[in-house]
Amino acid sequence: MNRVDRLTAILTQLQSKRVVKGKEIAERFGISLRTVYRDIRALEEGGIPVIGEAGMGYSLVEGYRLPPVMFTQEEGMALILAEKLVSQLSDKGSSQHLNSAMIKIKSVLKNHQKDELESLGQQIGVLFHHNPLSDVQSKDYLNLLLQALSGKFIVTITYTTFEEEKTSTRTVEPLGVYFSFGQWYLIAWCRLRRDYRNFRLDRVSSLQLGTETYSQKSHPSLLEYLEKVRSAENLFEFTIAVPFEQEKYLRVQKYNMGLVMETRHKDHVEMKFMTSSSEGFVRWLLQMADSVKLIAPESAKEMMREIVNGISRKLD
């Protein structure tokens, strides 16, 4: 970053909080405190009303802000919430870009709003057991894919399949990315398979952004593709009976597993599901097999018996 860009960025940072310490500026831009002091002096000489001194922190005169864009308090709160979510569910690169954007956004708020949002940020937490893109290996995959989608660039990935655990290199034309069941997925046209494929990002070991572009007109939109997949899925129907006292434990999971209908009876609720994986549903149901009854189909009951017998043999 050249000095002019850095001075502009420092000015924006000064507008993001009531007081910004020199150490914060130095750490953000990877410069020494001596350089920070020189940059602050340059801003002052340029007519920027900076208040403060080395060791105490810096601020701008109340009312001075650039650019002339204003946010409501409610919008600021929503952005703080979004920042917390993105930091836990996206890759390192995307999180850093959002942090930079948030500094710019906060810079146009009034001082009392900055203080309130600073305090609110410390009162919001997102506890996620594992961020699938948090490891060093995949830190910028999501950010690179967003660049590919924006510029319509092809992407080359090294991917390992889930079932067979076979690794291959694929050149793909991205349709979009989505987050579901705790994972990020890429939908893309695979030139190797000559068909659309769904790639889980935590199974991608390398990702390179190409220079060749592709035509979006030759592909459906992400939503169109997902809707087409849903309508073409070979779904299996399951019916279970859940006692009322156990129902609360399924309030969220039941929708993820494909709930389509509920019927309430005297002492239980009957739930009907449509799902694409019989074994996956049965194994999920085993978590509650001591209290939830599997009504149909018979093939699922037999599968459950086989799994339970297998568990029993391993315990002998």
Automatic annotation (TrEMBL):
Organism name: Mongoliibacter ruber
Pfam families cross-referenced by the UniProt entry: HTH_11 (PF08279), WYL (PF13280)
Transcription is among the record's keywords: yes
Superkingdom per UniProt: Bacteria
Name this protein carries in UniProt: Putative DNA-binding transcriptional regulator YafY
SUPFAM superfamilies: Winged helix' DNA-binding domain (SSF46785)
Keywords tagged on the record: DNA-binding, Transcription, Transcription regulation
Coiled coil spans: none
Domain HTH deoR-type: 3-58
InterPro entries per UniProt: CBASS_pafABC_assoc_protein, DeoR_HTH, HTH_11, PafC-like, WH-like_DNA-bd_sf, WH_DNA-bd_sf, WYL_dom
GO MF annotation: an example: DNA-binding transcription factor activity
